[in-house]
Amino acid sequence: MAEAFTHRLASSGLIASLEPDQWRPGSWVLSIDDTPQSHVDLADPTALHFEYIARMGHVIDAAFPTGESITALHLGAGALTIPRYIEATRPGSRQQVIEVERDLIDFVREHCPLPRGASIRCRYGDARTVMESLPKGLLGRVDLVVVDVFRGARTPAHVTSVEFYSAIKALLSTAGIVVANVADGPPMSFARGQLATLRYVFGDAFGVAEQSVANSKRFGNVVLGALASGANPLWVSALAGKGPHPTGLIAGTEAVTWSASAAVVTDNTAIDSPPPARNLFRS
């Protein structure tokens, strides 16, 4: 079995580790502060093994035809799993990644290199600050924005607000979509607030998660999405059948009900996402 690698991140001081997946040769798991962040399959970058990343892949596949290149912006790098997936399924896509921890990307690329010739540009700094200073020529031209920003196990408050998502909306093309990874536990107040905020900014939004997470039974990831056009397209209803199963789809009247108890989040009211229990990812 291949050896594991560790690195102390210069900015945060947190420990990043890459460990080989003993069940899937050629695959690696990135953890930060003992929290699993990403799974990358170097042998087959189209294989998305983490549950929430697989759901992100289903949303991307539903929104954009396979084989057609897109312009994508990724806030948060992880192990660059989704950028690798897009490069493999939509060659020629133009992608930019914003990551505050420069040495995290260096660490990942050293041990899990990107495909040769991939058009994936990395920018360094705070996700929101760098996004808001991108060239004006990108306004209205980005097809996909992926929000997967974590400081350790928590999402920072400043990338959760109306003002933040409004800046994303300005970047999106008319057929563009934002996809956000939200981690929360019962009673899912943070995730409900994020859905309410997306609905406020975009006019409509949807969520997909493992059934018990959607039902507020346990801590987990909720993948949220919203389209620049406002209304949810017909393909959203098909996400329930894509897996991993059992799947809970939060859309239409369910999205209205699910987020009804939550206030829309602004820069003045935003808070970090709740931390998971320290033993959640430990056997």
Task: Give an overview in words.
The chain is of the alpha/beta class and 283 residues long. It has one domain (45-259): 3-Layer(aba) Sandwich (Rossmann fold), CATH 3.40.50.150. The protein contains 8 helices and 12 strands. An 8-stranded mixed β-sheet has the order 7-6-5-8-9-11-10-12, sandwiched between helices. α5 packs across α6 (189-202) and α6 packs across α8 (253-259). The longest helix is centred in the last third of the chain and has 14 residues, at 189-202. It starts with a strand and ends in a 24-residue tail after the last helix. The model has no long low-confidence stretch (mean pLDDT 95).
List keywords for this structure.
4-stranded antiparallel β-sheet, alpha/beta, globular, 283 residues
| Count of spatially separate domains | 1
Strand order of the largest sheet: 7-6-5-8-9-11-10-12
Major sheet details: 8 strands, mixed
**Please, what is the CATH homologous superfamily?**
Vaccinia Virus protein VP39
Report Rg. Answer: 18 Å
CATH class: Alpha Beta
CATH topology: Rossmann fold
